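Homework help board

Subject: predicted structure for assignment chain

Our instructor gave us this sequence and asked us to write out the predicted structure in token form, then describe one feature. I got the tokens but I'm not sure how to describe them. Can anyone check?
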Amino acid sequence: MPSSPKATILGAFLEGWRRVLRAPALTLSVLAAMFVLALPLGLALRGMLADHLGTSVAAERATWEWDAGWAGEFAAQAQGLGRTFTHEILGFGGTVSILSDVADGTPLPPTVRAAVAASVLLWLFLSGGILDRFARGRPIRTAAFFAACGVYFLRFLRLGVLVGAAYWAIFAWLHPFLFGTLWNRWTRDLTSEREAFELRIVLYLVLAAALALVNLIADYAKVRAVVEDRRSMIGALGASMRFLRRRPFRAFGLYLLSALAAVVVLRLWFTAAPSASASVGVAFLLTQVYLLLRVWSKLAWMAGEVVFFQGELAHATYTAAPEPVWPDSPAVEALGNLTRSTGDMKTNL
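My token output:
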């Protein structure tokens, strides 16, 4: 039997974007889910700002433009979620702040931590349906999509425990070793700030490589769980590592290409991010465009990995789980039972 052609990095990447662009309903659903998740936090922060501003002149001015003096006064007395309202939320500053906090292992405020946990759970729930949709490469019904989400949610939760333990180990052991032990040892006799900066960049790259490896293994574990309908997440992790071990350069090349696409989106946001003096309408429009591009890049990342796996191993029996059939209503089922029982009676007669 002739072997199937291998998937190319660029081919999987482009096919992933094609499948995403041909699923507009999925994109809108993800955007709506993100909006619903962020809405409670936005309303809570709005209430804090309204209570602090009251009906003062500063309140009228802050409605239409950034008031650095008042923002500093608010941040000085804010607690919990209110402490996130700083100048860093303007434009690209918030993105840089988030990346910096992750790289440095900075603890999040409890409220933000809860929001992050809710976001992770939401993505775990949606991932099964999203991967199933991309694996099929065709539209599926809403009931089938959410049935796939429900089927894989508990499996991905179990997978999340294993992957979460790996992430915890990186930040609990590797991060202190890199930026504590090694940093202190190698900078003890340094006299150049440039050399210290370059050393820190190297350590950040090592940390990023470790996180990327765990993320890559987890991604293909999810893909194999969905495409092959695997129930054991330990087995899915083992299958993912075997898959990556046999084609490490192409798999990591696709990962880097998808990461590059995400960086391009960030670069566009850096260029077009609204300033404090931008009008509310322009700022809102640019932010929504950025969110759309970010969702597309995230979905295309997932779709590209599905396409790459299918191109490498998938054949006629390597497909996603059968499309779930929504059950008939009790009335329809009762009529069906009545029809069958009547037919049996006639047969007996």
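Reply (TA_rk): Your tokens look well-formed. For the description, you could write something like this. Residues 9-328 form one domain. That's the kind of observation they're looking for.
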